[in-house]
Design a protein that fits this description.
Elements (H helix, E strand, L loop, with lengths): L1 H16 L11 E6 L8 E2 L5 E2 L1 H12 L3 E6 L5 H6 L5 E7 L2 H4 L2 E16 L14 E5 L3 H15 L6 E5 L2 H9 L5 E5 H10 L3 E18 L3 H17 L1 H8 L11
Parallel strand pairs: 1-4, 1-5, 7-8, 7-9
Antiparallel strand pairs: 2-3, 5-10, 6-9, 6-10
Helix pairs in contact: 2-8, 2-9
């Protein structure tokens, strides 16, 4: 637990130190919007350097496309508006492909992921439907939040109390709500939960493999040329083994998609 709290403090301190890139990128640079509060997708390591699945993968993608990566760190909920405002070229932040998002940006699928719910070991809650009448924390604007909202509606349809959903701007704060017993459960991607549980004892999964969906790299509308470059870059990385090697490095090789 102390290790996780140290990481969380490093994340928050790193966020305060991390500058936001200028809107105009230098020649040969690919500006990548991400949220460095989502372990293992994107976060600051103990040396306060950006790391994670998305940092590694999209950094390699930029190089495959003949550019150097420039990461721009924002809260998750602000990524799409910032992409639309040309603060960066693409978004790479474990973002689920949804019809709502595809209505405002284009998305290139790059990883498949699903959701997991955890509680403390002493909790009597079992299963996703066991959250009816209980509380759960989640990242604001995430696919995990939609899962909770849908389940809460099912609770009410079954004449049960709804789920009290507490949404936070960052994953560390959402996790802290569970650590501090402010909520009964926490939901996030399988990979994030697995990473957290590798570093922390006292928690158990009550539901996993929920709502498998594609994660997508966001590209501005009317930039079919850039979307094609992203897709072709991923295809080349898959062909030369870089893509699978990066996922294996982070222990999520099962999340790989077969072709682009």
């Amino acid at each position: 637990m102390r290790s996780m709290k140290r990481i969380g403090m490093s994340l928050l301190a790193g966020l305060m130190m991390c500058g936001v890139a200028h809107a105009d990128s230098a020649p040969g640079q690919l500006r990548i919007g991400t949220s460095l509060t989502q372990m293992p997708w994107g976060f600051f390591d103990q040396a306060r350097k950006p790391t994670g699945v998305d940092v590694t993968l999209c950094g390699a993608l930029a190089k495959q496309m003949g550019s150097s990566p420039e990461f721009v760190n924002l809260d998750f909920k602000g990524l799409i508006p910032a992409l639309q405002a040309d603060r960066f070229d693409i978004v790479c932040a474990a973002m689920y492909v949804t019809p709502e998002r595809q209505g405002v940006i284009d998305m290139v699928p790059y990883i498949e992921a699903s959701q997991t719910v955890i509680v403390k070991n002493a909790s009597a809650v079992k299963g996703l439907d066991g959250l009816c009448g209980h509380s759960a924390s989640v990242l604001q604007g995430s696919g995990s939040m939609k899962v909770l909202q849908a389940q809460s509606q099912q609770c009410e349809s079954a004449k049960k109390p709804p789920i009290t959903i507490q949404a936070f701007d960052t994953q560390p704060i959402a996790l802290r709500a569970l650590e501090n017993d402010s909520v009964d459960g926490f939901i996030a991607t399988d990979s994030l939960i697995s990473y957290f549980m590798q570093h922390n004892n006292g928690y158990r999964k009550i539901a996993t493999g929920i709502s498998p969906m594609m994660l997508g790299i966001g590209v501005p509308k009317n930039r079919e040329d850039l979307a094609l470059k992203v897709r072709n870059g991923l295809k080349e990385m898959k062909s030369n083994g870089t893509y699978d090697a990066i996922l294996k490095q982070w222990g999520i090789e099962s999340a790989a998609i077969k072709s682009f």
